[in-house]
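User: My collaborator sent over this chain with a note saying "see what the structure looks like." That's all I know about it. Can you take a look?
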Amino acid sequence: MIKWIAIGSIIAFFVGVGLLAKNQAYSPIEKKRSWLESEMAGTVQEELNIALEQPNYKEAAQKIISKAGLWQPLVSPPERKKAAPDLQKMLADVKLTTQRVGRPPTTKVKIITKASRNGMWISVGSIVNDCRVKQITDAGIVFSVVQDGVEYTHTLRF
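Assistant: Without extra context I'll predict from the sequence alone. Here is the result:
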């Protein structure tokens, strides 16, 4: 077994040496280089004279500064949306009582606020602390505020 490995290694060595010798003798890069040199021999080389002048930086800066539209943003920044109203905070001083008159949808309910210590009667459509009464149910009162076309609601339970 070891004998076959040694023979295989010797064969691989000689194959590698043969490939290296072949690449040295028949180099494709040398063929391309000689072809390119023969092609270049028939061309006439022209001299290119480029006189570099010092640019006028002050004039260029003045041109840039004079363009007012250049300093405007390409896209306007997005408009910030107003924060949603905090209905719980707006209705914090509202206390519901158990006094109710009528049946839905004409139900009236008595509430107590800081502004009216003795209480006041409200129905659907009434405004309490900038919140409109949207609905009065057996479970509670639904208040709503419309801001930028979006309606926000909050329910106070009995």
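A starting point for your reply to your collaborator: The mean pLDDT is 87.
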